[in-house]
């Protein structure tokens, strides 16, 4: 089977070829390329599907043989340095290949319908193929330099896709924010790579890990310097995986098209940071201080993301903060040494979050026909509600994704998240407490999003009607000759001229109603989008059973413990399944999850459990006694934990003030000294010019005056001495 591994380069090469061909044809033959845009989309999907099938073959071979393969070619040869490029195939690589290609294919199929109206359709598929190829190249890299090259390509593709609608100011600002924030992490990563090369003399993972451990054991390197280099290495994953405090770019990245949000949050950009942390797990594990820092950064990120997501009105930003929180779980797991739990959660979360984002895209796609293309309206869950009646497949699949992300058995994320929570309690009680609280908060805000989106009634309808009006895709609602439709709440009737009705802001209007218009309600998405949603429900529902604690010898009993382990560290431990212990741990975590769901159902659910008078009294009681608490929660969520504001003051405004101070110092101090000397010399030269007039009497007067002045000074000095 080594023959198959030799052709692993085909996996990243195929989507790269698709990107190059689409991009070059779009550049040289734009009209013909755009006229054949669906053919180019099918071409991209076909090549990535071939790469996906090849990835499944590699995964099966890894499960069967469990052998690490490396293929290297010399790139730079010198007396002092020898650098090679190639591919590395191990369990982590094989599972990431399958994850990236499967999610990538489904996102491409989904995008063929979702982006069909967009003028940048072909450009989108060129970016998408390059994005996928860059991530595939990253996970196959056998050394740090090659990883850094593809790391930057992934960052560049993120920049291009987040700012895909670059004429929209918010999208342009979002891609710049993501680019600048990731530059901080990438600079730290570059310094860390340089430091490890200085210590070990190698970029190759196997050689680097072995030499680093030998140097630590023999005390041949400074422990604090090694910890500093490891921390700099981890700075890259902090930025790429949106960990605190470099998490601020991720919510703004929702300005890109929704399929890209699914790909970024499931299988590419944010997964790259977790992948690199897992790849560098052996040297991190040898440094206890770094492991503690990683675990606490993960815990803080998980809790922070969950608290900010509590009151988000934008459905995509709510899911973005959910991703940030779940990435915190993965980082926490790696920090406490729970390697397989962290990677298992990376896999289960990827499919669940891809399902949720594509489901939100289906909702947004349907809401655009009602409220327009402005993200402030079509993504605002305040205008939604009751969509399960009109979009049953989207509603059901979104509910399955919600069940999984909340950690409800037997869905996928339950098995991985429960293992992380259990391991964190064993490692340190404070981390266990944070992970448990975060699980409850996750259940609350996810069911809040689901209830406000799919349950109840369509809130874009007011008591009698609502307004439909076109909004530009760039969010500009001030267009000329707008034809407003005022539609009654009943599906088949139009308001009469004399009826009172309300627009979506609740203000009363009286206008002439056209009786030729039909009522518009959300509709289910087309077959391509629904197909991707239905396929993603399969791993979201059943993938978690790979981590079930089956007894030894049964199917699935040793897949994670014996196959998914850190590179160059064989795991010889076989743990028998203990369903009693697992059940007790699962019961405690599930009780917290169901508590969060119950509170969300009481506050946002469609069913009222009390009479109207009692409900009004309860609302007045909450408003009177908990007004400050609710206001704080809302403001904390709305202002993103105030972190963006502090960054604005400290870094943005601080940089501007520093620039002004430097400009003042340069203009008045540096230039002032130079200009002062030049003026002094010019004045001195101008003054002495009049002393040299060519008259002998003037020269004699100057000579006698100077001699007298010298005698006076000399006599004064002698008098002072004696």
Keywords:
mainly alpha; two-stranded antiparallel ribbon; about 725 residues; globular; two-stranded antiparallel sheet; 6 strands; single chain
In which order are the strands of the major sheet placed? 1-2
Strand content: under 5%
Q: Write down the overall mean pLDDT.
A: 82
Low-confidence segments:
462-518, 553-558, 570-576
Assembly type of the shown chains?
A: single chain
Sheet with the most strands, sense and barrel status: 2 strands, antiparallel
Content-based structural category: mainly alpha
What share of residues is helical? Answer: 55-70%
CA-atom Rg in angstroms:
33 Å
- The count of DSSP E runs of length 2 or more, i.e. the number of strands, is 6
Count, helices: 29
The first-to-last residue Cα distance is 107 Å
Can you tell me the overall shape? globular
Domain NADH-Ubiquinone oxidoreductase (complex I) chain 5 N-terminal: 75-125
EC number: 7.1.1.-
Catalytic activity: a plastoquinone + NADPH + (n+1) H(+)(in) = a plastoquinol + NADP(+) + n H(+)(out); a plastoquinone + NADH + (n+1) H(+)(in) = a plastoquinol + NAD(+) + n H(+)(out)
Main location: plastid
What does this structure look like?
This is NAD(P)H-quinone oxidoreductase subunit 5, chloroplastic. Residues 141-437 form the NADH:quinone oxidoreductase/Mrp antiporter transmembrane domain. One of its GO terms (biological process) is ATP synthesis coupled electron transport. Pfam families: Proton_antipo_C, Proton_antipo_M, Proton_antipo_N. By secondary structure, this protein is mainly alpha-helical. Among the domains are: 287-473 and 521-564 and 578-609, no CATH class; 611-683. The protein has helices at residues 2-5, 10-28, 30-35, 37-65, 91-114, 121-139, 144-162, 169-200, 205-217, 223-240, 249-252, 258-266, 269-279, 281-285, 288-308, 315-335, 339-371, 375-378, 387-390, 392-406, 412-427, 429-454, 527-542, 559-563, 579-604, 612-625, 627-638, 643-689, 696-721, and strands at 69-77, 82-89, 465-468, 485-488, 501-502, 508-509. The protein has a two-stranded antiparallel sheet with strand order 1-2. Strands 3-4 form a two-stranded antiparallel ribbon. A two-stranded antiparallel ribbon has the order 5-6. The longest helix has 47 residues, at 643-689. The chain is globular, with a radius of gyration of 33 Å.
